[in-house]
Amino acid sequence: MQNQIVHESIEEYRRYNKVLEGNRRYVDKKLAQDENYFRKLAKGQTPKYLLIGCSDSRAPPNEITETDPGDIFIHRNIANLVIPTDLNINCVIQYAVEHLKVHNIIVMGHTCCGGIKAAMKQDSVGGLLDLWLNQIKLVYEKHQELINSFIDEDDQINSLCCMNVREQVLNIWRNPIIQKSWQDGHPVMVHGWLFRVETGFIEELSLEDSIPDEMSKIFKIKFNPSKHQSPNQHQEEEGNAHSPMRARRRFQRMQSRIETEIRHFTINMQNVNEEEIENKIVQDIEQDLQV
Ligand SMILES: [Zn+2]
């Protein structure tokens, strides 16, 4: 019996050590490509995206998007939840938005998610985990009619994966840090992705109702005007062409036009280079930006 434990421990250690060996090969490979690679990384980070993903080992954000260290600011937890009172995720969001100045936040769920699967069952998985899964159960309860309309169990799980992403995107829109960013003139866009583990592809989820202007008024926060603003600033802002509110709408409109046009040009104009596409899009939306 004791021999077996020793044998298993040796195996475990060897397996663990392979991870460190992998790191040494990674360093060698990177230095062979660029001998200053790590010195450049050490100078600082300017990531353009915040990605909130699941901790699942099969959904590594950088690898599946072919991005490099420094490109994406990442937060991961079980089933990519954005719980309003979670100190950890709120600090990540605040740092990303207010200090790193990211404009795009992505919530990425994935198919075959163990957290989602567990939340659909009534079996306990342990105290804290049950508490965490309750957040997913709330999403399940809200959308159970749609989810249960699928006959196949995997389809049910994957549809809850989608609905869960949608709900977490809404939680981000409702977040005061995000709402304040619009008022401060730093508009943030929120995207919902579903990573399909079985194909490797990412699907962008359609999230029309998550657009903040259509969000329930109950969650729309009016921040106190600063000392330098008149008490009627909020009312005045609506009519002011340069107000943050107007700027926010303009940015939203521009963002969705850009997305639509890029898709249109990429699909219909195979042999056009990126610069040409960019020029065409700028021409097309110039009018919009004047409004
Ligand atoms: Zn997962």
TrEMBL record:
Transmembrane segments: none annotated. Binds 1 zinc ion per subunit. InterPro entries: Carbonic_anhydrase, Carbonic_anhydrase_CS. Keywords: Lyase, Metal-binding, Zinc. Residues 225-246 are annotated as: Disordered. One of its GO terms (biological process) is carbon utilization. It catalyses: hydrogencarbonate + H(+) = CO2 + H2O. The keyword Zinc applies. Zn(2+) binds at C54, D56, H110, C113. Reversible hydration of carbon dioxide. This is Carbonic anhydrase.
